[in-house]
Amino acid sequence: MALDRPFLATGAVVLVLVALYLVRLNQLMKSTPAAVKKVSPTRWTKKLLRETYQKLERNPVTTKSYANRLLPKLGRRYIVTGGSGLVGGYIVLQLLERGQPPGSIRIVDFRTPIRKDMLTGPASAVEFAQADISSAASTETAFAKPWPRAVAHLPLTVFHTAAIIVPSDRSKLTYSFCEAVNVRGTQHVVDASRRAGADVLVSTTSGSISLRPVGFWLAPWRMWSASSQPRDFWQVADEADFFAPPRRHGEYYANYPASKAAAERIVCAANAPSLRTGCIRPAHGVYGNPSDNTVGGPLNMGVAPTWTSHIVQSFVHGINAAVAHLQLEAVLAPPGSASAPQAGRPFTITDPNPPIAYSDLYSLIGSLAVTPFRVILLQPVVMLLISYPVECYNLLLVKVPQLRRAFPPLMGEVKHLQPALFSICTHVVATAAAASRRVEDGGIGYTGLLTTLEGMVQEVVEWNHEHQIAHAAGAEVVYQSSVALADDIQKATAGTS
């Protein structure tokens, strides 16, 4: 027994040191760096939220309300991949608002539009062509469909917004799905655009491309100073990485940004006099419809288990993202623009205001939504520790698929609780400096039409009105997020890939 005592004492000391390390790491993960506080010093008050809500109830944001701020119509026809979705849908609505005939627009998507603002009026008359862009043949068939004679002679612009979002997978073992849709699918769109005679291609990529994995596990002796923080705990989202050599797969926080970076370089490398190309990087989370992950996600769940209330990030409304696409198209439309500084490169865009904290978003929903909502605060280090066995379990079923007979795959939100998720849930300050420059100075003249406050409150206004109508009729309103849609697409295509 005497011999056991030193080992027990040593074990107790080790446990205490590990506990102290984890407590300190938890403190660091719950902190907001001084540099981030400087760019986002104030939080939304309930008074500000109520006043904004009342203003937008009286004067809601619609495509008609900002029509006079859109660029004039161009004499062209359009293919919008992903046109049923968030950014693509707003591009279609803005094209129609500025006078584009429905017959000159074609939506190419995996599913038909389900957005309520696209099911009535001119948007309901826009042609839909179902396609799986991971298939070259399917993409080609959708692009090659004949056009009405009245518009068939017009030059063709392709807006490529179709993609799948899988924010939590980082292993190359699970890269094939992102690669099939986001990388090979983009190549298929570029090839089909050329064959269809398009001379402008603007693609949606992602501000997350520039982000690096956060290094949470600091050396113990580096954790105790006042300035300590995890490596890359706050980052700037811009385009600087595009002008450097491509990074290795492991230098992206997950498969999604790695695939979008590869897709972006495919599009930009395709720039030529016959097909002028460029990319828009919305940063960081895109919102603007109850199917989005940023605002719609917590609205639909009614509860937000979170460790990110203090996290500060830049966001961009789908309206602002769509406007940026149209502005880049206008620069690339002239035949000689392939040599313009705006061609063959990406532009990061964000809402025209400082970044906000997730606590602002939760306060907004809790104060304004007619549906129940509550926040459950979680300890970040505990969730980080749980994320590793979740990732190991997911990867084990990939490596040994026979195990699925006895061990079911994780479903829903749990399957996405993996280490990569913590790198996307970090402080991100985006800059639209390059995009905001005047066209003559190499920019696209980007100015967002909505602030994050206006855009998020407007989404809750629409949510409330829809739920009040549904409640009176005894009906239920259900939306599917883009992450959930990606899960469904993966299941639907699993047997055909």
UniProtKB/TrEMBL annotation:
GO terms for molecular function: oxidoreductase activity, acting on the CH-OH group of donors, NAD or NADP as acceptor. The chain crosses the membrane at residues 6-23, 78-96. InterPro entries: 3Beta_OHSteriod_DH/Estase, Lipid_A_modif_metabolic_enz, NAD(P)-bd_dom_sf. Pfam families: 3Beta_HSD. The keyword Membrane applies. Belongs to the 3-beta-HSD family. This is 3-beta hydroxysteroid dehydrogenase/isomerase domain-containing protein. It comes from Podospora appendiculata.
